[in-house]
Write a structure and sequence with these properties.
heterotrimer, A alpha+beta, B alpha/beta, C alpha/beta, B: alpha/beta, 8-stranded mixed β-sheet, C: alpha/beta, 7-stranded mixed β-sheet, 11 helices, 7 strands
């Protein structure tokens, strides 16, 4: 298992609801927990993954995710079991969209 | 003065038949011999160094004859040159392992690919060449005529007239090439009857008939369980339908085998219907009659299907849909691989299929080190048909896009779409700087790297990241960046020139799902017209009978 | 309208229970928005063992527990996520189920509805997993003794096996789809122990014939069979809850003895028969070999006069 951490500043969107979780920790899949957090405006993403050694790819995927949504004061936690970047991006977007109506 | 002999083939054939008669004696009644005497027949009619064509087809296997051939005495029969569409069964390689055969010309070897590579490098199997099916059949008539062919049929009558039924496949091409070069035609049949339902091969062309102890083996090669289709494949199927099928108005097409294309078929009655596309796309198909097409047929999208072979379990459904399938006067289907490959080449406006690797020029290959598998029909289907002259809207539009702004005479072009997820299993990237085919070329000492579809024939590359339209690219650099632009987070994708890719997107050369107006949230398995095998059975009104391995009931 | 759910476009369409995740089942089975979770994922009550084994964890350890409303009736509920470790029960997962059942008993809940999908004990957690499952059995029976009926739904692709198969049979009512499976030993285990001639675990039709909803319904191991459809499961759950509004939930000695007589009769009548089709023939189900192809309504009609445990 490998744990990766990312932190992004300059976000603007804050989520006002209860934490949400999407996805399942099954083969080729992942679960994404998204929650509001007091982080001085930052968005943090922690990934625990069974697929070791793909740091640069995770970095690129997270960079693009942040550029898409610009979340602030949000904590994202991921348990991953070998999902491809396509599935990762899909779940991340699904996680944000489940709170679409509550995004400031 | 010596007189040249011009009938050596006839004389040689007569000698073989005489030897067979002597060897079989009273066990040979007309053309028929008992299964137990097959080895004696083969020892008698086959000579060392012969070109022998065995029906290892994509689905149908003359397994009784293939097994017998593989177990001949290599001291009596050896150095055979095998001509075979597909190496599917272990005995197809045993025949080399045991020294009965030494040379091979073929098209596809999927399940046996690793063993082919091992035997080749051990020097027991000398590969003449890998071909696409139509190319191999063509050589049977020019420089590779079979001396003996071993084929499979449903039934024979007492004269040797054969009924090959829905699984006719490669048989007509093989038999014609053999019979009309004085070769010997040997057939295994499931049953011998007084009268066949229709004559697929005239008895005059057939020399020996043996009823095999078990019916010939058929592989349900094209059946795909919808339960295994993923959300990503649904998304890609939506992009294919909206971004390509609808855009070009594709009415005549071939789907390469796979879950990606099965997803497209299962989205026709739902997603394509919601876009108002019934009647505008997907009318005429060169395709095996596989069950994933059932909902689209029932929904009225599919008008006609011509097939390379049949598909196990579909017999009753096909029988009940004679307007759609290639049904003969006797009421049953006939498939024909040679004609269907020709149809896919000249009479279809689009080929779409999957692959394992694509390089920066768009060359596509499934070749990997350690496995010599060939490509089957894909190379033929995925090639622009330069001899074609009749126009269709899709063909003209593709040709026009390719030639716009260039000083060339107008012509059409076939749409050739390669559909692949950016990452395969174990996070293997599908996009690479250098195809594994180069490595295989060195390993197997081939003249050129084995490429399935060449980049200059590929018109579109479709991934979960979007569609790259290579027709609109005008330079090698644009082409490379268009490919990088849909290669996602693979090293090839991450190596893109971001500004160029943005520009290509502005010009519509790269289209993302959003650009096509597709909401990714709709890409769920709920959009599939059938989500499992039972749904397919229901869609067929109970007529489809899935083979055992696909059923849990 | 989403073409997937437009019946004019796609008449086969219905929400599949089998394909849904545990959380999707909770959202769609109960009254919309009524599910209130105890120990939600953000509390991160995760397995203490899996990390040490270098295995991935889930924030809810593979089970969501809480309260919801079913046709206006408040019930307690748990849904196992078959996608995570096959729904297998580890220490935390089991403790959540036990806690839910104890809370339901203490609160004198109208009912507990368990959405079971599990291979049984999570072997990774060894004794902790075994103990957890046995505690679940005890807690379920305690809930029943406190007057809380327990209804189990079995319709996921992993079925209800091992200890969770036993747990399911401790419930008042088991509702299954034909796609669901209910058993103790898994098919591979039976084949390994008794040989492939006895039971070929790769013969999927045999596996479902033996352990699937239809056979279980005929044998009296489940009381209701429904189509693989969220609405059908919902209705069956509602009816079961309503049934126990006026019936005692507790396991009585009389019920136990009736059950044991049924089991004796099963062995005596069918013990020597090699295949479920032979059993169905012996039960005089018409056209027994065709039972797997029947749609649910036709099957229920054919089974009506003949099934056990009715």
């Amino acid at each position: 298992m490998e744990t990766l951490n990312y932190r992004y500043e300059q976000g603007t969107r804050r989520l006002k609801t209860d934490p949400q979780v999407v996805g399942v920790v099954g083969s080729g899949n992942l679960e994404v927990l998204i929650e509001p957090a007091a982080l001085n405006g930052a968005c943090t993403i922690e990934i625990t993954t069974a697929a070791v050694g793909f740091g640069p790819i995770w970095q690129a995927v997270m960079n693009d995710f942040h550029a898409r949504w610009l979340l602030a004061d949000t904590r994202i936690s991921i348990n991953d079991m070998g999902a491809t970047p396509a599935v990762v991006s899909l779940r991340l977007d699904q996680a944000v969209q489940t709170m679409a109506g509550d995004v400031s | 003065m010596t007189v040249a002999a011009w009938n050596t083939l006839q004389l040689n054939r007569a000698a073989r038949l005489k030897r067979a008669g002597a060897a079989l004696g009273t066990d040979l009644t007309g053309k028929s011999l008992p299964a137990a005497r097959i080895a004696d027949l083969l020892h008698a009619v086959i000579e060392c160094g012969d070109r022998v064509c065995l029906e290892g087809n994509n689905q149908k296997q003359a397994d009784f004859l293939g097994h017998a051939l593989a177990h001949l005495n290599p001291e009596r029969v050896n150095d055979l040159h095998m001509l075979q569409s597909v190496l599917a069964l272990p005995e197809h390689l045993d025949v080399f392992e045991r020294g009965v055969a030494s040379k091979l010309d073929f098209s596809f070897s999927g399940p046996q690919a690793a063993r082919v590579a091992r035997l080749a490098s051990a020097g027991k199997l000398n590969i003449g060449a890998i071909h696409t099916y139509l190319e191999l059949f063509s050589r049977y008539f020019i420089d590779l005529p079979p001396r003996v062919c071993l084929i499979a049929a449903e039934a024979a009558d007492r004269h040797g007239n054969l009924y090959t039924g829905p699984n006719t496949e490669d048989t007509p091409a093989i038999v014609e090439a053999t019979a009309f070069k004085q070769g010997i035609v040997i057939v295994q049949v499931n049953r011998i009857v007084d009268s066949v339902p229709r004559v697929d091969v005239p008895g005059d062309w057939v020399n020996f008939v043996v009823q095999s102890p078990r019916p010939y083996y058929i592989e349900p090669l094209f059946t795909r369980d919808p339960a295994q289709i993923s959300e990503i494949q649904v998304l890609m199927a939506m992009m294919a339908i909206k971004g390509i099928y609808a855009e070009y108005g594709v009415q005549r097409l071939n789907h390469g085998i796979g879950f990606d294309t099965a997803a497209i078929e299962l989205l026709l009655p739902t997603y394509a219907e919601s876009l108002g596309l019934r009647g505008k796309i997907g009318k005429h198909w060169a395709l095996n009659p596989h069950p994933a097409l059932i909902p689209a047929i029932e929904a009225g999208f599919v008008q006609s299907v011509h097939s390379f072979g049949s598909e196990l379990g579909m017999e009753d459904y096909i029988h009940a849909r004679p307007d759609v399938f290639a049904i003969g006067p006797d009421g049953t289907m006939r498939s024909n691989r040679a004609m269907c490959q020709a149809a896919g080449h000249y009479a279809c406006d689009m080929f779409i299929g999957s692959t394992l690797q694509i390089d920066l020029q768009g060359n596509s290959s499934t070749a990997t080190a350690g496995r010599i598998s060939g490509f089957g029909g894909a190379s033929n289907m995925g090639a622009d048909a330069r001899g074609r002259r009749h126009a269709s809207p899709a063909w003209l539009k593709a040709g026009q896009q390719a030639r716009e702004g260039r000083n060339t005479i107008p012509r059409g072009q076939k749409l050739v779409v390669q559909m692949v997820e950016t990452f395969r299993e174990h996070m293997q990237p599908a996009f690479v700087e250098r195809l594994d085919a180069w490595e295989l070329m060195e390993q197997a000492k081939m003249a050129i790297p084995p490429v399935m579809i060449y980049g200059d024939d590929v018109t579109h590359i479709l991934t979960e990241e979007g569609i790259a339209n290579l027709l609109l690219c005008r330079t090698d650099e644009e082409r490379e960046q268009a490919i990088r632009g849909v290669a996602g987070y693979t090293p090839v994708g991450l190596g893109r020139d971001a500004r160029m890719v943005e520009n290509l997107r502005d010009r519509g050369i790269i289209q993302r799902a959003e650009d096509l107006g597709i909401d990714k949230r709709m890409a769920t398995r709920d959009l599939l017209a059938a989500r499992n095998m039972k749904d397919l059975v229901r869609a067929s009104g109970g007529l489809y009978q899935p083979p055992k391995r696909f059923r849990n009931w | 309208m989403n073409p997937a759910v437009n019946p004019a476009v796609n008449p086969i369409r219905s929400a599949s229970y089998q394909e849904a995740t545990a959380r999707e089942r909770l959202q769609q089975l109960f009254d919309p928005g009524s599910f209130e979770e105890f120990l939600p994922p953000y509390k991160r009550v995760i397995s203490p063992h899996l990390g040490q084994l270098n295995a991935p964890v889930a924030f809810d350890d593979g089970v969501a527990v809480g309260r919801a409303s079913l046709g206006g009736v408040p019930v307690y509920t748990a849904a196992q996520e078959g996608g995570f470790m096959g729904g297998a029960v580890g220490e935390v997962h089991g403790a959540k189920l036990v806690g839910l059942l104890r809370r339901a008993a203490a609160d004198k809940a109208r009912a507990v509805v368990l959405l079971v999908e599990s291979g049984g004990v999570r072997l990774h957690e060894a004794n902790a997993g075994l103990i957890a499952v046995s505690e679940v059995m005890r807690a379920l029976l305690d809930a029943r003794a406190a007057g809380v009926p327990v209804i189990v739904l079995v319709g996921g692709s992993n079925g209800a096996f091992g200890g969770m198969g036993i747990v399911s049979r401790c419930a008042n009512v088991v509702v299954m789809s034909e796609e669901g499976r209910l058993a103790m030993s898994g098919p591979e285990v039976i084949e390994t122990a008794n040989g492939v001639e006895e039971f070929d675990s790769r013969d999927r039709a045999l596996v479902w014939r033996s352990t699937g909803g239809k056979h279980r319904y005929l044998m009296g191991d489940c009381q209701r069979i429904v189509a693989d459809d969220m609405a059908a499961f919902r209705t069956a759950a509602q009816e079961a809850v309503a049934q126990y509004a006026s019936e005692p939930a507790e396991l009585s000695l009389e019920a136990l003895e009736t059950e044991q007589r049924m089991l004796d009769e099963r062995i005596a009548s069918f013990g020597a028969l090699p295949d479920p089709v032979d059993i169905w023939t012996a039960m005089q189900i018409p056209d027994a070999a065709n039972v797997p192809m029947l749609e649910v309504d036709s099957f229920i009609a054919a089974a009506a006069a003949r099934r056990m445990g009715a």
